[in-house]
Automatic annotation (TrEMBL):
It comes from the Bacteria. This is Spore coat protein. CDD domains: Ferritin_like. Gene3D superfamilies: 1.20.1260.10. SUPFAM superfamilies: Ferritin-like.
Length: 73
């Protein structure tokens, strides 16, 4: 298992940017779900937000050194 020390500063910066973008997407999809009346679209947005949360969890694991970033290449 690789630690965060095994990624370069540039890679770490990219991962942190990706984490911020995923969190922004989650926020936006939540707002869209609240505004949406169509149940099917609301479910689709919920599924997408759930997928984004999984991405956030994975990025956090990589940044904390729990998981090697090379597993996801």
């Amino acid at each position: 298992m690789a630690s965060i020390n095994s990624v370069t500063q540039k890679e770490k910066a990219y991962l942190e940017d990706a984490l911020q973008m995923e969190n922004l997407c989650i926020t936006k999809y939540s707002v869209y779900m609240d505004q949406c009346q169509d149940r099917e679209i609301k479910n689709l947005l919920s599924d997408i937000a759930r997928n984004k949360r999984q991405h956030v969890d994975t990025l956090k694991q990589v940044l904390s050194g729990q998981v090697s970033s090379y597993q996801y290449q």
